[in-house]
Specification:
The protein is built from 13 helices and 13 strands. It is an alpha/beta fold. The longest helix has 21 residues. About 45% of the residues are buried.
């Protein structure tokens, strides 16, 4: 699959099931120096696949807390020690945390060195590795510091999913469901019908769903790389979801928070826009099918959640910005924009109503 960025006149490829050995062999001939950045959990599973005497393996601790200036600076010092220059390559090998952090590192080290993503989690395969967003967290919120920086290549291998526990597959299902809600009604219907244990489905069907999600994201980012409007639809569920992640200091899993975020944002659409009760119920049902409404908050948490989501980088002026569906499979343009501003009071009322419902 070819990805084109018309703003920067860049092209890169997404390659499926490419041999890692062949890729490493070709890369060591092309680049002066190579670093592969991963976390200790991923390294434990794949150390044999990535073992190469000509590649520097740099390991960090797993988890959202590694997306920090402290870890980035530690990696930068290691690259400088190893005499990395602009003829070097940095490989992100892991899930979303590794991809976001490594992408940011590659975009700023010597003002930019070549980057390759090899995603190993379902979230990273269908979402975070694609689109050029990089970033780290700040004590005020998630992904507030970062850049837009495309890789030279993304290598996707669905076999990596077989190594993941069910909890990690569940996190990726939140993003897959999101694609159905914002852009593809047929995908949503398919997810309603298939086995709720995603990896128990036919391998051909799994790969078809993965490629469909990747294609949707590619089509969106090619039209709006820097999130001026259309790309905002990819944030459905994430405004509330990121607030919940911050509320729990990132101890709750990303997909669980986004699942609850999609439920609450769908309720906002039902209460204040033209989203139907029937579609709202179908979204709750599919989220429950994949066990994605596990993140609960208390009434006393609502003021904190509001404060956290006010820091969302998509907000404009004083109101909080959402991309909300008018029906399953479509985000409607309102006032020529794919985003809509919702007042604090309406969000607060919805957060309380959602608590009463559950």
């Amino acid at each position: 699959m070819i990805v084109r960025n018309k703003h920067r006149n860049e092209i890169y490829s997404i390659n499926f099931n490419k041999s890692l050995k062949d890729f490493f062999r070709a890369s060591t001939k092309k680049y002066h120096n190579i670093a592969l950045i991963t976390d200790s959990n991923v390294h434990k599973i794949f150390h044999k696949e990535i073992m190469n005497k000509d590649i520097n393996i740099l390991k960090i601790s797993p988890g959202e807390k590694s997306k920090s200036n402290r870890v980035k600076e530690k990696l930068e010092n290691k690259l400088l020690e190893l005499k990395f220059n602009r003829d070097s390559l940095i490989i992100a090998f892991g899930g979303g945390v590794i991809g976001d952090l490594t992408g940011y590192l590659a975009s700023t080290y010597l003002r930019g060195v070549d980057l390759v993503h090899i995603p190993t989690s379902l979230v990273a395969i269908v979402d975070s590795s694609i689109g050029g967003k990089t970033g780290i967290n700040n004590n005020k919120g998630k992904n507030l510091i970062g850049t837009f920086y495309n890789p030279k290549e993304i290598i996707v291998n669905s076999d990596f999913l077989k190594t993941l526990p069910n909890k990690e597959i569940r996190q990726g299902m939140a993003e897959i469901i999101k694609y159905g809600i914002i852009k593809d009604y047929n995908l949503f219907k398919k997810l309603e019908k298939i086995n709720d244990n995603f990896l128990d489905n036919n391998e051909f069907e799994i790969n078809k769903i993965l490629k469909k999600c990747i294609k949707i994201k590619v089509e969106v980012i090619q039209k709006d790389f820097k999130e001026s409007d259309l790309r905002s639809i990819l944030n459905f569920g994430h405004t509330i979801g990121h607030g919940l992640e911050k509320l729990y200091s990132y101890k709750k899993s990303h997909g669980d928070c986004i699942g609850t975020g999609m439920a609450i944002e769908s309720l906002i659409a039902k209460k204040y826009l033209e989203f139907s009760s029937g579609d709202y119920k179908r979204i709750l049902k599919i989220l429950d099918k994949y066990h994605l409404r596990k993140t609960i908050y208390k009434k006393s948490d609502i003021p904190k959640i509001l404060e956290f989501i006010k820091l969302d980088k998509k907000n404009k002026k004083s109101k909080i910005t959402f991309s909300l569906p008018d029906k399953i499979g479509n985000i409607k343009k309102r006032n020529k924009k794919f985003t809509v501003e919702i007042t604090d009071k309406k969000i607060e009322q919805t957060l309380k109503e959602y608590l009463n419902e559950i």
